[in-house]
Amino acid sequence: MCPSNGDGKDRCADVPRDIRAAAERLRGVAQATPLLRLDVADVPADVYLKLENRQVTGSFKIRPAGNEFLALADDECKRGVYTASSGNLGIAMAWLAKRRGVRAMVLVPGEVPDAKCEMLDSLGAEVRRVSYDEWWAAIVNRGVDGVSATYIDADGPHAMNGSATIGLEIAAQCPQVDTIVCAVGGGGLACGIATAVKALRPDVRVLGCELDTATPLAAALRAGEPVDVDYMRSFVSGMGSTRVLDSMWPFIRRNLDGSVVVSLREVCDAIRLIHERTGDVVEGAGAAPVAAALSGRAGGGNIACVVGGGNLGDDDLAEILAGRIPAVGVS
After folding, report:
1. What is residue 51's three-state secondary structure?
2. What secondary structure does DSSP assign to 72-92, as a single string?
3. How does DSSP classify residue 73?
4. pLDDT for 89-136, tens place per residue?
5. Which numeric CATH code is attached to 62-151?
6. What does the pLDDT look like over 189-210, one tens digit per residue?
7. Cβ atoms 38, 290 nearer than 8 A
């Protein structure tokens, strides 16, 4: 998984030990996904798609959830597991819990598409719809009072190390990569990837991508600290919030090179283009990094876009392919 340094020697020794351990732990759980070049005209960059939507659970979340879940002690598993998720982390956790024969519960905000909740139901997870504020509080506080199950944290150390394995694969698949773009929700994906890649190639830029409906990362980078921003609901789940997590800010400040903001229209255009060129169905948070690269705002050179997930409902896809932006709640 680690690239050569040009003289045929393995670079794995340069990668933090915990990330290397995550790569070993995830063998047989998360697959190495393809990195495909997207052939487009009038774009000042070579754009590559890291197709994490092709994971068994439909998103990259099998990596952070898998690394955290597989590190649990037996007594922690026996209590059952739960998380607060916009869908993909919960789906990955429920898939892992079903394989291990333990119960799983997922707290989801009210705007999560029905398609994701149906997947959770099919995996045997208990789904609890809560208000956005309750859901966000569970993420910030890493759990809720009164629940005895073990909380799976999307942005904890184990989770970030799991996400970091994507960076190792990109570095091996595209040694000439200049920039990597990731959607930002809590920040664990982008920071994990940056930690791995910059250990090998400190010159590679790692950019967060946000929707113009909620830009806490851009606001925090301008202010030099996390600040509250407005949040507008959209059909895109899995990214955006009212504030960068205070616990994640030191990692973000140290590892990320900036934020690219895209519109819902640009995201829909990217979803349609990916579907036309590759046949892949990708969700909004998966297409946002591609939209950033296509806009030119992520710069030039070789840009790897992390297509984080493909759990998009049929109704949303139909709307997008017809040239419309899906309404909130349609899925």
Report:
1. strand
2. S-HHHHHT-EEEE-SSHHHHH
3. -
4. 999 999 999 999 999 999 998 777 788 888 899 999 999 999 989 998
5. 3.40.50.1100
6. 999 999 999 999 999 999 999 9
7. yes
